[in-house]
Design goal:
The complex is a heterodimer. Chain A is an alpha+beta fold. Chain A is built from five helices and four strands; from the N terminus they run αααββααββ. Chain A has one domain: Trafficking protein particle complex subunit 3 (Muramoyl-pentapeptide Carboxypeptidase, domain 2, 2-Layer Sandwich). A four-stranded antiparallel β-sheet of chain A has the order 1-2-4-3, with helices on one face. Chain B starts with a strand and ends with a helix. The chains are: A alpha+beta, B alpha/beta.
């Protein structure tokens, strides 16, 4: 039974992209439901930001078993930044990490982000995508900071509408 | 003058001559202890969910008390707060009110009946507690690393003082119940250890700061408990000699030794030397850790303090603790798991019956059960947690003596054989192999400590010989032999079968069986696929990877090691990664080609894997001989892997239970 490698890889590749697309669509379907339930007095952005907090809190817990100070602060910050970048990669983005100019500072760069495309399908403002990403990462860091007894912060430095160009985030210690 | 509870004279016992240091008396505080044996406090989830002691809990402790032959026998640690934040196990005993005293007294009395010293342990589970409530407590709010544990919140200064008083009050109840020794648990992530560790204590009041500040609550607990215990009841503490939490900036070993000194200054009469937390990323007590691996920590502890040092942790056999006690590097041999596997273990050592010891195989099934709110059980000891049931502990003689043919001298067959023979049956064990042990002969060749599994067979062999079981090794049981012998009952313990691959080229000469590989009977190529992702396949994959082979593990189960308990499985996952083993789960082999195999996922994707050898480890029940037995109208039992391929534990438990019933 010969294996047609091209056919198998193509099938797998399509299935992966379909699964990734479903992630975004499912999120925005639920966003719509949440906004309807929240009522007219609540801004959609506030609902989305609250969701980002909840997501971040849960993802942060899943980070804790992997947190490791054995390689010192620089090693720890790199591991953490790679874990954050990995979330983008899982969704179908391209993200890299590099050391920043200051000690203990890491820059996360995303050069391909599928979320703005999905957001557009559902008529969601582009700035919401960037703000939610920032809020989710900040929420992830809450438990990580408490767990490692250090104060960590992350900030959005650059966001390009519709996902082209680069999104840049800065991870650093505040003390 | 030391307080003597029970007089023991070991001078005539062979074990006391062979291991003289284990059976030498010692003084803990003012209490005379006849030997150096201690059953360490162990949770078993046998008590009521309301914290009251049950018959099962009492019976469990009575057996362990028999085993220590006059030494220390500690009941499980009790939680001490009505709010149950300190409760870490659903069946943990409570001592937060006087209403628990009668139950606790039953335990003390059961231990005293065996002329052993009854120990009472105070254990607030802290960070790993709150098993029945929404949140726990600790010195500081530090998120949980493992999701199985509840969120926990920082105690106020007043709550810390209340916790200290709870220890004192619970100690009073233990004394009233009749206990002779008191112990504070400060290990593995429980509350006292949370206070001591820089990882979990970030307080800025008098209970935080440097190691002396972090020890302040512990000091106050020790002093309070000492005061109520008086001079005749020794107070000990279990403390981490190394937390193994350097990845999360826990205490350094130097700080841990400082904690020992501070505890000694506060007045403890002994220290139990432990290591590691439940959150540690290093293995401590599983089978892959060599025996005696940690005993040097006891020596280091003795270099820092003058009070007696006790230690457990992979000290499963008497020779090493005897040697270390003789050398002055240890004072007490503690045991938990070895006496779960065989409650009479030290007694058998004393009586010169070491060959009758059922040794713990360090699988950690007992722990896995506790963490999943299940009653204690033991992988290797079918009686464990059934001590209150005389059908298990003392099976009645057979109503009718039968001639029993047991087919297969593996762990299932041997276990069944001696139990049935002890009950009065005439038992004949047949095996086509020339030796006993069945497929354990091959399984013991897997790396990371699997040779310890063989102790099970050694024990069973001795028990069979003492029970008068007759062996017919090198004899394959056939239809004709059954028709000739016509026994009253037949037990099929033939082990599993390893089916051929269901592909057109399933007879390829590159396909071999697990048994041949593990025995070294066949040549194995450099690239190997092991078919079957349960424990036998994993053991074989690791065995081959250790020889430098490039190994791919392919199996039908959704995760590899489905049949391995979670407390050990994580080790296998790490070892497979470390040894470069590629794992494809939820897959089937759909073709064997000239170059290797074709793998197909559950949802239809296919890809080739190059290999020189394919090892079959996938097992199925063994149906052979059943028809002829049934056609002759002979009573039939099928046990172990022949019934359903599982693991060593299932084989032993099947064998014991059928041996009881037959």
């Amino acid at each position: 039974m010969p294996v047609d490698a091209e056919k198998e890889i193509t099938k797998l590749w399509k299935a992966m992209h379909n699964a990734q697309a479903e992630i975004g669509k499912t999120y925005y379907r639920w966003r719509q439901v949440a906004i309807e339930f929240a009522g007219d007095d609540v801004k959609p952005l506030d609902v989305a930001l609250r969701a980002a907090e909840v997501f971040g809190k849960d993802i942060g817990k899943s980070f804790l078993p992997r947190m490791n100070w054995l390689k010192g602060e620089e090693g720890f910050m790199l591991i953490l930044a790679k874990a954050l970048a990995g979330l983008w990669l899982n969704d179908g983005g391209l993200a890299t990490v590099e050391k920043g100019e200051n000690p203990g500072e890491i820059i996360i760069k995303c050069t391909r982000d599928p979320w703005p495309t999905w957001a557009k399908e559902f008529g969601v403002p582009m700035e919401e995508v960037a703000l939610c990403r920032e809020r989710m990462y900040q929420s992830i860091l809450e438990d990580v900071s408490a767990f490692m007894n250090i104060s960590l912060a992350i900030e959005l430095q650059k966001a390009i509408p519709r996902g082209q160009g680069e999104t840049i985030m800065r991870l650093y210690r505040t003390e | 003058m030391a307080k003597v509870l029970f007089e023991w004279d070991y001078s005539d016992y062979p074990g006391a001559k062979k291991y003289p240091h284990l059976f030498t008396p010692i003084q803990l505080g003012n209490l005379h202890v006849p030997n150096r044996i201690k059953y360490a406090a162990t949770e078993e989830n046998l008590n009521g969910r309301d914290g009251f002691i049950t018959d099962s809990g009492v019976a469990y402790m009575r057996e362990r008390a028999k085993g220590v032959v006059g030494g220390l026998c500690f009941m499980q640690g009790v939680y001490m707060d009505e709010a149950r934040k300190g409760q870490g196990y659903v069946g943990q005993a409570a001592a937060w009110d006087d209403k628990f005293i009668p139950g606790l007294k039953r335990i003390a009395d059961a231990i005293h009946e065996q002329r052993a010293i009854a120990g009472f342990q105070l254990m607030d589970c802290g960070r790993v507690g709150a098993v029945e409530v929404e949140s726990g407590h600790g010195p500081s709010t530090v998120p949980q690393r493992l999701r199985i544990f509840k969120p926990m919140y920082e105690m106020t200064n007043a709550e810390v003082k209340e916790m200290i008083q709870q220890h004192v009050d619970a100690a009073k109840r233990g004394i009233e119940a009749g206990f002779d020794a008191m112990e504070i648990s400060g290990i593995v992530g429980y509350l006292i250890s949370n206070f001591i560790s820089s990882y979990t204590n970030r307080r800025t009041d008098e209970y935080g700061g440097d190691i002396r500040g972090r020890m302040q609550a512990v000091v106050e607990v020790i002093q309070g408990v000492k005061e109520v215990c008086g001079p005749d009841i020794p107070v000990g503490i279990r403390l981490c000699s190394e937390e193994l939490l350097d990845d999360v900036r826990g205490n350094t070993p130097e700080e841990s030794m400082q904690s020992y000194k501070i505890a000694e200054e506060a007045g403890v009469d002994y220290i139990s030397c432990t290591l590691g937390w439940q959150e540690s990323i290093y293995p401590v007590i599983s089978r892959d850790i060599p025996m005696g691996n940690w005993v040097h920590l006891a020596k280091r502890a003795k270099e820092h303090v003058n009070v007696p040092i006790q230690m457990a942790y992979r000290l499963f056999k008497p020779d090493l603790p005897n040697e270390k006690i003789g050398a002055g590097e240890l004072d007490f041999w503690e045991m938990c798991r070895p006496m779960i596997a065989d409650p009479l273990m030290p007694k058998k050592v004393l009586e010169g019956k070491e060959d009758e010891i059922r040794h713990c195989v360090a699988c950690n099934l007992c722990l896995a059960r506790l963490f999943r709110d299940a009653p204690m059980t033991c992988y290797i000891n079918p009686i464990c947690a059934h001590e209150a049931n005389s059908e298990f502990t003392d099976p009645p003689p057979a109503e009718e003596e039968k001639e029993i043919m047991i087919v297969g001298a593996g762990p299932a067959g041997l276990e069944c054989a001696y139990m049935a023979a002890q009950r009065g049956h005439e038992v004949h064990v047949y095996d086509k192999r020339d030796g006993i042990g069945g497929t354990l002969n091959e399984a013991k060749n897997a790396p990371y400590g699997d040779d310890e599994l063989w102790t099970c067979v050694e024990y069973q062999k001795v028990m069979c010989e003492k029970a008068g079981v007759e062996f017919h090794l090198g004899t394959e049981v056939t239809d004709e032999l059954i028709e000739e012998e016509l026994p009253d009952s037949i037990v099929l313990a033939t082990g599993p079968v390893y089916p051929k691959l269901d592909v057109s080229s399933g007879d390829s000469d590159k396909i071999v069986t697990l048994l041949d590989v593990m025995n070294g009977n066949v040549d194995v190529g450099e690239n190997v696929v092991v078919w079957g992702n349960r424990k036998p396949g994993i053991g074989c994959a690791l065995h081959l990877a250790k020889q430098g082979k490039k190994v791919t593990l392919v199996g039908k189960d959704k995760t590899a090691g489905f049949d391995v308990n979670p407390s050990f499985k994580w080790r296998y996952m790490i070892y497979m990664r470390q040894n470069g083993i590629v794992v494809y789960n939820d897959c089937d082999i759909v073709d064997v080609t000239d170059d290797g195999i074709v793998v197909k996922t559950y949802d239809g994707y296919q890809w080739p894997i190059q290999c020189d050898t394919i090892v079959l480890s996938q097992r199925e029940p063994n149906e052979s001989l059943k028809k002829v037995v049934q056609s002759e109208g002979i009573e039939l039992f099928v046990i172990g892997d022949a019934l359903i391929p599982r693991n060593l534990s299932s084989a032993v438990h099947d064998g014991y239970r059928i041996g009881m019933r037959i």
